Amino acid sequence: MTVYRLAYLSRPAPGITAADVRAIAASAARRNADLAVTGMLIHEFNRFIQLLEGPLEAIETLMTAIIADKRHTDIRIFLNQSAAGPSLSRWIMWSDFDRMAMSRRELELREEIVRAALESLAELDAERRNAGTVADGAA
């Protein structure tokens, strides 16, 4: 079964609490099950990183809602692809506030997602620095 896979990172809004993150997790778990979407939401080190896998229409619906959600900002998509099948059999939440039990494979995938997100942030930082250097040199 072909699935659509999308991953992004974002910054939590200032003042986000453990209760807010739990509410996000509960809402996402219900909505994702209804849409046949699996994946992982990671909340750590003052950032969200999410991998979503499922039908294209479902992912588009979720991303529309995610982009409109004021509980986070600075959304950066770093993975956008189709795949032969989902990487995960369920939707998982991992938070600095509450840690969910994960299988070894799920923990390995979590590390892969975090690594890719950090690489994406490093690329964005380099692009911004280079743009600033070019702008400084043009003046």
Protein described:
By secondary structure, the chain is of the alpha+beta class. The chain has helices at residues 18-34, 56-68, 104-138; strands at 3-12, 38-44, 47-54, 72-83, 91-95. A five-stranded mixed beta sheet has the order 4-1-3-2-5, sandwiched between helices. Strand 2 (38-44) and strand 3 (47-54) form a beta hairpin. It is globular and about 45 Å long. The termini are far apart. GO terms for molecular function: blue light photoreceptor activity; FAD binding. This is BLUF domain-containing protein. It comes from Jiella avicenniae. InterPro entries: Acylphosphatase-like_dom_sf (IPR036046), BLUF_domain (IPR007024). Residues 3-94 form the BLUF domain.
Question: Which descriptors apply to this entry?
Answer:
139 residues; alpha+beta; 5-stranded mixed sheet; 5 strands; 47% helix; Acylphosphatase-like_dom_sf; FAD binding
Give the topology, please:
Layout: E1 3-12, H1 18-34, E2 38-44, E3 47-54, H2 56-68, E4 72-83, E5 91-95, H3 104-138
Structural class given helices, strands, pairing? alpha+beta
Helix-residue proportion: 40-55%
Low-confidence stretches: none
The number of distinct helices, counting runs of at least 4 residues, comes to 3
Estimate what percentage of residues fall within beta strands.
25-35%
Q: What is the element string, with H for helices and E for strands?
A: EHEEHEEH
Mean pLDDT: 87
Largest sheet: 5 strands, mixed
Distance between the termini: 54 Å
Query: What is the overall silhouette?
Result: globular
GO molecular function, one term: FAD binding
Domain BLUF: 3-94
Pfam family, one: BLUF
InterPro entries: Acylphosphatase-like_dom_sf, BLUF_domain
